[in-house]
Amino acid sequence: MKYSAAILALMAEAVLAAPQATSGATASSSTSTATNTTAMASSYAGASTSDVYPPSGTVANGTLFPSESVVGFPGPTQTGVEPAAAQTAPLYPYNTGAAKSFPLVAAQPHGSNSTSNIDITKYWGNLSPWYSVNSSDYGLPNASPLIPKGCSVEQVHLLYRHGARYPTSGAAPATFASKIVNATKGTGFNVSGDLAFLANWEYKLGAELLTPFGRAQNFLLGVEYRQLYGELLNNFTAQKAIPVFRTESQDRMVKTAENFAAGFFGVPEYLQEVNIEILVEATGVNNSGAPYEVCNNSNIASRGSIGSTAATKFATNAFNSTISRLNSMVSGNLTLTPTDAIAMLQLCSYETDALGYSAFCGLFTAEDFANYEYYYDISFYYNNGPGSPVSAAQGKGYLQEFVARFTQSYPNASSALNETFDNSSTYFPLNQSFYADATHEVVVLDTLTAFNLTALFNGPALSTSNRNSSNNTFVASKIVPFATHFTAQVLECPARNVSKQIRFIVNDAVVPVSSSHPGCPVDPDGLCPFNTMVSVLQQRIAQIDFNYDCFANYTATAGVNYNGRAPH
Ligand SMILES: *[C@@H]1O[C@H](CO)[C@@H](O)[C@H](O)[C@H]1NC(C)=O
Ligand SMILES: *[C@@H]1O[C@H](CO)[C@@H](O)[C@H](O)[C@H]1NC(C)=O
Ligand SMILES: *[C@@H]1O[C@H](CO)[C@@H](O)[C@H](O)[C@H]1NC(C)=O
Ligand SMILES: *[C@@H]1O[C@H](CO)[C@@H](O)[C@H](O)[C@H]1NC(C)=O
Ligand SMILES: *[C@@H]1O[C@H](CO)[C@@H](O)[C@H](O)[C@H]1NC(C)=O
Ligand SMILES: *[C@@H]1O[C@H](CO)[C@@H](O)[C@H](O)[C@H]1NC(C)=O
Ligand SMILES: *[C@@H]1O[C@H](CO)[C@@H](O)[C@H](O)[C@H]1NC(C)=O
Ligand SMILES: *[C@@H]1O[C@H](CO)[C@@H](O)[C@H](O)[C@H]1NC(C)=O
Ligand SMILES: *[C@@H]1O[C@H](CO)[C@@H](O)[C@H](O)[C@H]1NC(C)=O
Ligand SMILES: *[C@@H]1O[C@H](CO)[C@@H](O)[C@H](O)[C@H]1NC(C)=O
Ligand SMILES: *[C@@H]1O[C@H](CO)[C@@H](O)[C@H](O)[C@H]1NC(C)=O
Ligand SMILES: *[C@@H]1O[C@H](CO)[C@@H](O)[C@H](O)[C@H]1NC(C)=O
After folding, report:
1. pLDDT category, 117, cuts 50, 70, 90?
2. Which among 64, 83, 252, 334 is placed 20 to 30 Å from 47, CA to CA?
3. Where does the chain cross the membrane (predicted)?
4. Pick from 20, 120, 36, 27: nearest CA to 368
5. Which of 16-20, 314-318, 356-360 is predicted with the least confidence, judged by mean pLDDT?
């Protein structure tokens, strides 16, 4: 290791200055501890650094270290009943503590005092760890994800996102690091005060892969779903079959499905108790989990990525006072810009999610974090929500696949779904009591838009210029965080005139459908008669013109609610 005594002293100081990990309420303010020492940037500031594990050529040796089944002597192995907490528990296990979750720690915002207790991790858009959302946010104050009285759960369909990952390749944080590297090549690059840590900061993040915390999120989601719905496995036992869980071929997507399965079935049982189907994610290949690979307009600035442009524009005015404060702590050839403010906020999120803590977080105020969240709200609403002209088309693949599973009939090829797999009882079984598909957050949001779950976006189209004048229920960190999950519960409710019912749940919030799905009654539990819902969704499938939205020549603008469909 190349740490000098001076750096070790600085690191020790940073540890002392770091907020207490155990109690958000006692976290110390980040302002009072900043020193006025000016540090000359070291020659390696901003450099990328990485480690590689395992060493090449190494492999576990199953002969020297045989598995449990070979060693034998397992002791008694009597199983208990499958858990069914969704049905049997009086209380639902909400994830309402700090979103940061064990084992991450996060600072209080800059300028906060000893009495403030702000969970900054709930302001990170798609980089937030998931947390329970309250049904009252969307208009069902008394709904719970527990199975309503008088009903029993017959079938569950789950669509979930990978847990925390490194930045995608070429994202803003790595560009920021190279800007620091460039600054070290000029003369007199010094940093002071809250920014002093940058003098010895290195870029330690990889790209694309799940982080250890990300793995834990997917594992725990598997544990949670086994606990809530394990009894549905008895249906597989009766059929003498094991389930197919699907994912995409990217490394993090494969590991996501494996960690979920490991949590759901146990290690190493998951290796034998589920078939994990890996669908190729690559340009030009049909895959409902990666529709942007075959939807050309999704990658065109004036169509599929109007949200990114609008969010960048919003950021040019949102962080001015913080940028001036930070620039006053820098000398030499470096001037921080709004782009750098976003990059440093993202470094706060990514370093926390990957390394457990980030010195960048304490640079920003509570107001900055609110604007950072709104930056993501704009980006996602207009890239993958109702403000996008391609989102419904991209979500149509999963919409068709859900309806196919609801109706036991294979879907037709009018979207990004892969007909080769979806015509096969091996690769697209239609008789499962429990389905679990892993995907990306953009696709989860595309899917919610395709389902026309407009309660999630209630209100006028998001303002692209002013957070305070916006009046929409949409908040990105509630809908597209790491490990976000969309659940459909199919229920039997014998006491109702129509016994077969369905409802939709996003991160524990039950979504009302009575205003968006004609024929679904106002219902405090968000229920809709199954056949009514299926026929509304079939109409929605017919309405979404994949070919036009993904390939036609049109221009879209941020500021409009398109219901996810291209303007004609
Ligand atoms: C740190 O430096 C700033 C700017 O030079 C100054 O306003 C402030 O009073 C200093 N703080 C301390 C604790 O010396
Ligand atoms: C495992 O170890 C045994 C005994 O040392 C050796 O014969 C075998 O080649 C090893 N297998 C692997 C996969 O390394
Ligand atoms: C501390 O911050 C909170 C908001 O986070 C504010 O309401 C309160 O007035 C502040 N207290 C002091 C003493 O500044
Ligand atoms: C959801 O919000 C309602 C109304 O504000 C409140 O009564 C309820 O306790 C909240 N539920 C949870 C799980 O936090
Ligand atoms: C760093 O400097 C190189 C060479 O001048 C330049 O090509 C590159 O764009 C700079 N990077 C950043 C992030 O400014
Ligand atoms: C300052 O940085 C910019 C961008 O990296 C570079 O093009 C320029 O040559 C640098 N100027 C000095 C004086 O080092
Ligand atoms: C369906 O998926 C397979 C394997 O991933 C791929 O080879 C094939 O091209 C896909 N079909 C279409 C129409 O893209
Ligand atoms: C914020 O800074 C930008 C330059 O980055 C400037 O164009 C804009 O006018 C400033 N906005 C406000 C509200 O001061
Ligand atoms: C298993 O679940 C499916 C889907 O709910 C249902 O159609 C089927 O009847 C169930 N089979 C058994 C044996 O319970
Ligand atoms: C927000 O919406 C509510 C209800 O639709 C309306 O009463 C209120 O005036 C709106 N506020 C703003 C700032 O648009
Ligand atoms: C979608 O929901 C909106 C209400 O937000 C409704 O006006 C529209 O008819 C719905 N579309 C379909 C196809 O159900
Ligand atoms: C798309 O439409 C615009 C405006 O009508 C036109 O200028 C442009 O050439 C068209 N592009 C293509 C590829 O047809």
Report:
1. confident
2. 252
3. none
4. 120
5. 16-20
Q: Are 257 and 249 in contact (CB under 8 A)?
A: no
State the pLDDT at residue 35: 58
Strand bridging mode 38-40 / 152-161: unpaired
Ligand 8 center from residue 374 Cα (angstroms)? 17
Q: 363: CA distance to ligand 3 center in Å?
A: 18
Position in ligand 3 atom list of the atom nearest CA 115 = 1
The one-character DSSP state at 129 is B
Read off the tokens for 433: 């009591």
Neighbours of 79 (CB within 10 A): 5
Peptide bond into 54 cis (omega under 30): yes
pLDDT digits 0-9 by tens, 161-211: 999 999 999 999 999 999 999 999 999 999 999 999 999 999 999 999 999
Say how many Å lie between the CA of residue 452 and the centre of ligand 11: 6
Taking the CA of residue 132 as reference, the ligand 4 atom at the shortest distance is 13
Residue 32 has pLDDT above 60, yes or no: no
Give yes or no for residue 61 CB within 6 A of ligand 2.
yes
> Does residue 141 sit in helix, strand or coil?
coil
Report the distance separating Cα 562 and Cα 297, nearest Å: 15
Backbone angles phi and psi of 562, in degrees to 5:
-90, 0
User: Distance, CA 281 to ligand 7 centroid (Å)?
Assistant: 9
| Proportion of the chain above pLDDT 90, given as a percent | 82
Q: What distance in Å separates the CA atoms of residue 219 and residue 323, rounded to the nearest whole number?
A: 39
Backbone CA torsion sign across 458, 459, 465, 467: negative
Query: If DSSP codes are grouped into helix, strand and coil, which group holds residue 510?
Result: strand
* CB 97 near ligand 4, within 6 Å: no
* Residue 16 parent element (H or E): helix 5-17
| Residues 138 and 459: beta-carbon distance below 8 Å | no
> pLDDT tens across 535-563, in order?
999 999 999 999 999 999 999 999 999 99
Cβ-in-10-Å burial (0-12, 13-18, 19+) of 446 comes to: buried
Cα–Cα distance, 528 to 540 (Å, whole number): 16
CA of 465 to the centre of ligand 10 (A): 17
* Distance of alpha carbon 80 from alpha carbon 77, whole angstroms: 10
Distance of CA 176 to the CA centre of its chain: 23
- Going from the C-alpha of 339 to that of each of 175, 225, 320, 479, 557, the distances in angstroms are 10, 39, 11, 24, 22
Taking all residues of the chain, what is their mean pLDDT, rounded to a whole number? 91
Residues 6+ apart with CB under 8 A from 79: none
Q: Could you tell me the two tokens for 213?
A: 């915390």
186 in contact with ligand 6, CB cutoff 6 A: yes
Residue 377 amino acid letter: D
Ligand 3 atom closest to residue 366's alpha carbon, by position in its atom list: 5
- As given in the structure block, the two tokens for residue 138 are 């969307």
pLDDT of res. 36: 66
